[in-house]
Write a structure and sequence with these properties.
The structure holds two protein chains of two kinds. Chain A is built from 14 helices and eleven strands. Chain A is an alpha/beta fold. Chain A has two domains: 418 residues, Amidase signature (AS) enzymes (Alpha-Beta Complex); 39 residues, no CATH class. Chain A has an eleven-stranded mixed beta sheet, sandwiched between helices. Helix content of chain B is 48%, strand content 0%. By secondary structure, chain B is mostly helical. The longest helix of chain B is centred in the middle third of the chain and has 22 residues. In chain B, helix 1 crosses helix 2. Classes of the chains: A alpha/beta, B mainly alpha. Chains A and B meet through helix 10, helix 11 and helix 12 of A and helix 1 and helix 2 of B.
């Protein structure tokens, strides 16, 4: 098998070949590491590469599988982790200067689970500083770049993971989503990413941004991989009180059931306003495709989304500023300009503002709940426009921000996926957002898989 | 800050100094439009919230751990 063939297989398919002894974990890790060697200087996707350790872990996986001791369907599959997850013995910077020398002594809970499932860690990926931003223009380690156009941002904050996936530098990854930080880069880079229900996976050992929204989720090139990763990372954690007590479930159980019988809710306000024509066309075509596959479409009302954007911003800024307060007082110059400004802004949000934002949260949650009574899932664009240019700042105004279609979902705490659904006129990927009811990730994944298998946009490769 | 939609830069500097932060004039000028926009929008929201609107219950979603 050629290097590229290894590097662009889905995790599920690579895992099946490894289990059948048709592929070797060591060869798979070597192939990805070779692409990292060749492409990372261009892409800035990885902050730390753990090559020796990866090859040792892959060799262990190979021996275990040869001895009949499989750890599951992703045993031996190469992964990259956003540099926000604690990794024992491996530097974990959160994309910051402040944590530049931080070497945790214990893995984050989700990393423990991934290791137990036999995945092989290739390294840690670039991110927006402290996950507080959407462009991945990192002033300390350099920007990550979009493999579809190196002059454009891959999105953020999990931008290194998305760039690495799109360019075949890793097979699967993990990100975090507080205000779109999984879905933005997934949409910008043409990969898939799932923000699960708030509390689905443990956040122990993950640097916080805003406790009310921080969510750990999988990123990959194929929907099936998201389901398999959810099977590994989801579930209760006694060390994280925000973690849901629901037992584990099989998120892949309904993947191939298709779109037949599903009701798609399409919002007739906000989510299609000000969206670039090329983006809207691709998303409308994806909706039509799901209808042809047997889904029924209904228009739904989702009023109040501009207020939702503002409430989310206020809560996020206030909570982030509370967490960063001590560093902000003592090491303000060690922050990048945009992050420092955002944290200073959070200091100005008064207690009454914060409470009012939480009151908006309750209203927005009721709005989504009502829409998802008449629909099984909601379908919208992910990003309203093509990815920003590297260095181009993101607007924070509700009508112009490029994460404005995403943060209302964070405010509600509901699950949502971004998956590729085509390309715009400039050849940049377009992302489709599918939103589900709390704890119904399996249904979201089913709808996404129905779309994926009908058009296979996810198999396109960028020109790097 | 609820209700404030015009924030002179010296006021921003003073407010942040109260919180132990140092803000020079340049940074205050950069912060000012962001603060006016966000706090202004929050003030407008406060004026439109139904009186019976309460924050969501602690624990957030229905089956969160206690």
């Amino acid at each position: 098998m050629t290097e590229d063939a290894f590097c662009f297989l889905s995790g599920a398919e690579l895992g099946r070949r490894i289990a059948r002894r048709e592929a070797s974990p060591v060869e798979a890790a070597r192939a990805c590491l070779s692409r990292v060697d060749r492409l990372n200087a261009k892409l800035g996707a990885f902050l730390t590469v753990t090559a020796d350790r990866a090859l040792a872990e892959a060799a262990t996986a190979e021996r275990e599988i040869a001895a009949g001791r499989s750890r599951g369907p992703l045993h031996g599959v190469p992964m990259a982790l956003k540099d926000i997850f604690d990794t024992a013995g491996v530097r974990t910077t959160a994309g910051s200067k402040i944590l530049a020398e931080n070497v945790p002594v214990r893995d984050a809970a989700v990393v423990e689970r991934l290791r137990a499932a036999g995945l092989v860690l290739l390294g840690k990926t670039n991110m927006h500083e402290f996950a507080f931003g959407t462009t991945n223009d990192n002033p300390h380690y350099g920007p990550a770049r979009n493999p579809w156009d190196l002059e454009r941002s891959p999105g953020g904050s999990s931008g290194g993971s998305a760039a690495a996936l799109a360019a075949g530098l890793c097979t699967v990854s993990l990100g975090t989503d507080t205000g779109g930080s999984i879905r933005i880069p997934a949409g910008a880079c043409g990969v898939t990413g799932l923000k699960p229900t708030l509390g689905r996976a443990s956040r122990r050992g993950v640097a916080p941004l805003a406790w009310s929204f921080d969510t750990v989720g999988p990123m990959a090139r194929a929907v099936e991989d998201l389901a398999l990763l959810m099977n590994v990372i989801a579930g209760p954690d006694a060390e994280d009180e925000w973690c849901a007590v629901r037992p584990a479930e099989d998120f892949a159980r309904d993947l191939e059931r298709g779109a037949g019988g599903l009701t798609l809710g399409v919002p007739h306000e906000w989510f299609f306003e000000g969206v670039e024509p090329g983006v809207e066309a691709a998303v409308r075509e994806a909706i039509a495709l799901l209808e042809r596959e047997g889904a029924r479409r209904v228009d739904v009302a989702l009023p109040g989304m501009a207020g939702a954007y503002t409430a989310h911003h206020a809560i996020l800024a206030a909570e982030a500023s509370a967490f960063h307060g001590p560093w902000l007082r003592e090491r303000a110059d060690d922050y990048g300009g945009d992050v420092r400004r955002g944290l200073e802004l959070g200091q100005l949000v008064a207690a009454a503002d914060y409470v009012n934002a939480r009151r908006v949260q309750a209203i927005v949650r009721a709005t989504f709940r009502a829409a998802l009574v008449v629909a099984d899932v909601l379908v919208t664009p992910c990003l309203p426009q093509a990815p920003l240019r590297v260095g181009e700042p993101m607007s924070r105004e509700p009508e112009a921000a490029w994460n404005r279609l995403l943060t209302p979902v964070n405010l509600a705490g509901y699950p949502a996926i971004s998956m590729p659904c085509g390309f715009d006129g400039a050849g940049m990927p377009v992302g489709l957002q599918i939103i589900g009811r709390p704890f119904e990730e399996a249904l979201v994944l089913r709808a996404a898989r129905a779309c994926e298998r009908a058009r296979e946009w996810h198999t396109r490769r960028p020109p790097v | 800050m609820t209700g404030v939609s015009d924030l002179p830069e010296d006021l921003l500097i003073a407010l942040l100094r109260q919180r132990g932060l140092t803000l020079d004039a340049g940074r205050a000028a950069a912060l000012r439009p962001l603060a006016e926009s966000l706090l202004g929008r929050l003030a407008r929201i406060a004026g439109t919230l139904p009186r019976d609107a309460a924050p969501p219950p602690a624990g957030v979603l229905e089956d969160r751990a206690p």
